[in-house]
Amino acid sequence: MTKKIGILTSGGDAPGMNTLIFNIVKLCTKNNFYIYGIYNGFYGLYNKKIKLLNNKNFLNIWNSGGTFLKSSRFPELKNYQIRKKIIKNIKNKIDILIVVGGEGSYQGALKLSNMGLPCITIPGTIDNDILGTDYTIGYFTALENITKAIDNLIDTSVSHNRICILEVMGRKCGNLALTSSLACTCEIVITPEKKIKKKHIIKKIQNKSISNNIIIITENIYNIKKLAKKIEKETKIETKSVCLGHIQRGGKPICLDRILAYRMAFHAIKLIKKNKLNQCIGIKNNKIIHYKLNSIK
Ligand code: F6P
Questions:
Q1: E strand or H helix that includes residue 55
Q2: 251: which residues sit within 8 A by CB, 6+ positions away?
Q3: Strands lying side by side in the sheet with 188-190
Q4: Which of 72, 133, 241, 248 would bridge with 228, disulfide CB 3.0–4.6 Å?
């Protein structure tokens, strides 16, 4: 019997999601599977925003940023009655759901799979915060965006002998801050995993142990405006703060994300062909892997 597969993107969009959708549709068409795009994440399952896709729907999206299927956060999915309605909505229409997203999206997929909808999850988030995979789709592009922003900030900060605090995304994960600071030799990096006390930041600056004037910090740790004022007051060095915001999340995916998306799409369809469902896809030591969805609890 021909398989009916649904795909949705959920949570924050990530560069490479479109490459992934494009390849999933291509591979489904090749294998004579029906592939349905679900619009606006889990909300689209609830609201029946579902459309049959084919290669001709979106030929030019494979290298664009964002997500063609759109995304949303849908906390209502925690509600059992909402999930029951979703299961009812898709009965006989979709027999396997591919969920592309981060931590919250994985939890949503797990809940639906526990109610009888087989799911495959694929990591798509700039945060790189999913435990079972070394990398997530979108992370490398965001890292590249941040690196370029830091390079620009170094030019202007050094020219004025100023310090600049740059806040990057990551939610509860410091990967983006840490790796971008390595790429740009920024000695002060403050992450959820390694918070630095304000007095120690100031000491480092006073000891002249920073070489390029930039401090990198993950979001939701300190109020960067207040921190800049404090540093300025204590060190007498003019200090600015910049929140990079959603700029880091946009743009065409770089080749690493495109290739990762392609490899993960290929693996997802391989699992579906073998009827190996309720799995999460990941990459470990440059090998595409899968592990049980119910191991994420
Ligand atoms: O999860 C991805 C992410 O970009 C986080 O880094 C950030 O905290 C969050 O999404 C921002 O969400 P929104 O776009 O809904 O403001």
A1: none
A2: 15, 65, 141, 145
A3: 188-190, 214-218, 163-168, 239-243
A4: 241
CB-based pocket (< 6 A), ligand 1: 11-12, 102, 125-127, 169-171, 219, 249
- The token duo for 174 is 């410091």
Measuring CA to CA, which residue among 66, 52, 74 is closest to residue 20? 66
Would you give per-residue pLDDT tens digits along the chain (297 residues)? Answer: 789 999 999 999 999 999 999 999 999 999 999 999 999 999 999 999 999 998 776 668 899 999 999 999 999 999 999 999 999 999 999 999 999 999 999 999 999 999 999 999 999 999 999 999 999 999 999 999 999 999 999 999 999 999 999 999 999 999 999 999 999 999 899 999 999 999 999 999 998 766 779 999 999 999 999 999 999 999 999 999 999 999 999 999 999 999 999 999 999 999 999 999 999 999 999 999 999 999 997
Q: How do beta strands 239-243 and 214-218 pair?
A: unpaired
Q: How far is the CA of 171 from the centre of ligand 1 (A)?
A: 7
Residue nearest to atom 10 of ligand 1 (CA): 12
- Bin 72: left if φ > 0, else alpha if -120 < ψ < 50, else beta: beta
> 98 CA distance to ligand 1 centroid (A)?
21
Q: Please, which residues bridge with residue 28 across strands?
A: none
Report the pLDDT value the prediction gives residue 297, as an integer from 0 to 100: 78
Question: Cβ of 43: how many Cβ atoms within 10 Å?
Answer: 21
The alpha-carbon radius of gyration of the chain (Å, integer) is: 21
Taking the C-alpha atoms of residue 231 and residue 206, their distance in angstroms, rounded to an integer, is 10
Closest residue by CA, ligand 1 atom 4: 12
- The residues that are catalytic are 127
**Tally of helices (H runs) and strands (E runs) in the chain:** 9, 11
